[in-house]
Amino acid sequence: MHAVILAGGKGVRLRPYTTALPKPLVPIGDQHAILEIVLRQLATSGFTSCTIAIGHLGEIIRAYVGDGDRWGLHVDYATEDSPLGTMGPLLTMRERLPETFLVMNGDVLTDLDFGDVLARHRDSGAPLTIATYARKVHIDFGVLTTDDSRVVAFTEKPSMDYRVSMGVYGLSRDTLDGYTPGLPLGFDELVLDLLKSDCPPHAYDFDGYWLDIGRPDDYDRANAEFTTRKSLLLKGA
Fold this sequence. Notes:
Layout: E1 2-7, E2 27-28, E3 32-33, H1 34-44, E4 49-54, H2 58-65, E5 74-79, H3 88-92, E6 100-105, E7 108-110, H4 114-124, E8 128-138, E9 142-147, E10 150-156, E11 159-172, H5 187-196, E12 202-206, E13 210-212, H6 216-233
Parallel strand pairs: 1-4, 1-6, 4-5, 8-12
Antiparallel strand pairs: 2-3, 6-11, 7-13, 8-11, 9-10
């Protein structure tokens, strides 16, 4: 099984932590970087190879990970010279990708079974499988519903439930057909194109542990919780 890890972003929302380090290498706990945790999880899930898409401070990632041998993985790299969006880097490496593969952000902290996501994707026959997570969004204001300048309903500080993308996907190589290598391609654009063509993605619903380390408060929470979650995130460690 093969995985592609997207690690080319600048991590702007996580500054100042990412001023000198790429976001996937910020430390979690006393001994581990996020990317190391991800690589160990992939190996445990049965993955044997991985491509890391690098850009900003990519040489540091390459120096840290090397060929992936210490995790039992064969790791190679794809360099993003300019921002290509979430899915754009896949177009530049399309010819060396297998028929189906896993795609994930390099800053996801979760106990999701990555191997099962890819297996379910293969079984579904869908062009794209999206790992999803239930999130509750709290609105800090009273919400008005209006009709022709008349207030017809009011809800005080409601909560809304959504299923959100976890940043982990199963993808089929031919789903990328028709897109031009070297041009940006966002996850949103790909999903909307699939919906327009009546080829909807498959949802892989997950209710375990998940954190997207995108903001300083998320990062602080990850470090605070890591000691109690370590055995879950790094099985056998």
